[in-house]
Amino acid sequence: MFNWFRRPSAHNPQSLAPQPQKSEAVSEETQVTESEKSELLNWAKTAYQNIQSDEGETTEEELEGEEQPPETSLETEAETLPAWMRKSERLEVLKETAIETTLEEGKLAFDEDFVWSAKVLAEQGRSAKEVSAEEINWLKRLRQGLGKTRRGLVNQLKAIVGQGPLNQEAVGEIETLLLQADVGVEATDYIIGKLQSKLVAEALPPEEAIAYLKNILRELLDQPQGKQENQALSLEEDHLNIWLLTGVNGAGKTTTIGKLAHLAVKSGYSCMIAAADTFRAAAVEQVKIWGARSGTPVIANQGQNTDPAAVVFDAIAAAQAKKTTLLLVDTAGRLQNKKNLMAELAKIRGIIDKKAPNATVESLLVLDATVGQNGLRQAEVFLEAAKLSGVVLTKLDGSAKGGIALAVAQQLNLPIRFVGAGEGIEDLRPFSSYEFVEALING
Ligand SMILES: Nc1nc2c(ncn2[C@@H]2O[C@H](COP(=O)(O)OP(=O)(O)O)[C@@H](O)[C@H]2O)c(=O)[nH]1
Ligand SMILES: [Mg+2]
């Protein structure tokens, strides 16, 4: 008997009742038969062959494309750079030290990473014929990025769960592990509560317990999305979308802007960057480098310490004239003076509302995952100041605190929109709770 599961406080028949289809899906998912394994292998092989033949076809085009200089970006850089900065040594140094991004991955190998990524894609109902090398590469990076968190959390978690049906002591150990991964008290309580409710109803074999835990985590991560106006964060063409990137210094705002610009351009959208972090000259230089690398025009003001709202005003005018789809706004992240920060962000919002009343505005908080719970405290300031609508989680690659994603969803009630897992231009992609949880638990 597993009476230790029956904690009266956790006994809530409503939330207990598992969704019938879901519980079926769970058991299907966990009983991996030999034939399923070989099916997966075939899926992976087909995907691999397809990607290889695609690469064969595109290599020549890519090479031809590379011979042409990125005209727009060079022009805009020359136009927008003040004369004194055009031959800036600093700029040259920054350029030299910029991270190499081209062909960083090399050729895809049919290795363990590939098979794992293929599995995650196949489980989402994808066809082996339509998946791209990029998706595989990203999943690989995400998996590696969450490696530190996973090693700390999941291996121990599996050891606990693997000992047999969960008892109260084991649940206590899971709780500690979640807190250590910076899942936060609120989200941990929620997760543990859900687990316990389920365990009161039935004893779960280890594999099913893990699958059920994954369901809880996915639901938790997906919840805040439904509360946002722009649920899918889709970009409407022929319409101006303005994304404000906020966050403390060093969180990764400027880098994220560069990666987002690249992603948007690559996906066929027109994009522009407003260099509204006018506090430091170096910040404007840095954003211009990202503009050049992603082939995106950068609107900046000549002088130092100029009014960021004025830059945003000019950028909106330029974006409207060019019928740009996405305008990314880089902002300053000084936190020393909350009042100034709030005033600055409010002024920027005011300009946007006045100059582009029909634009779809997103206010994204850039959060450094390595900072963990401290980041959440900083976030609360921005929550007040910037009418946040979502979060970009950066530096997952260097963090053992990937669990912060769950705390963000639970405590801030904000959807995670993108995750960054490296300093390169390709190292940021839209967030998928499914893939995140797979990389966290089953990587
Ligand atoms: N490892 C890693 N480093 C990142 C990531 N995103 C940004 N960085 C680094 O974090 C530092 C600060 O980034 P920056 O964009 O200048 O931050 P900002 O002050 O918020 O604009 C830079 O050295 C970036 O290369 C990431 O996802 N992974
Ligand atoms: Mg910056």
Structural commentary:
By secondary structure, the chain is of the alpha/beta class. 57% of the residues lie in helices and 9% in strands. The chain contains 19 helices and eight strands. Strands 3-2-4-1-5-6-7-8 form an eight-stranded mixed sheet, sandwiched between helices. Helix 16 (338-355) crosses helix 17 (373-386). The longest helix has 34 residues, at 34-67. It is globular, with a radius of gyration of 24 Å. Guanosine-5'-diphosphate is lined by residues 247, 249-255, 333, 366, 394-395, 397-398, 420-423, 427.
Helices and strands in order:
Blueprint: H1 13-16, H2 20-30, H3 34-67, H4 71-80, H5 83-86, H6 89-97, H7 112-123, H8 133-145, H9 147-161, H10 168-180, H11 185-201, H12 206-222, E1 241-246, H13 253-266, E2 271-276, H14 281-294, E3 298-299, H15 308-321, E4 326-331, H16 338-355, E5 360-368, H17 373-386, E6 390-394, H18 404-412, E7 416-420, E8 428-430, H19 433-441
Parallel strand pairs: 1-4, 1-5, 2-3, 2-4, 5-6, 6-7
Antiparallel strand pairs: 7-8
Guanosine-5'-diphosphate binds next to α13.
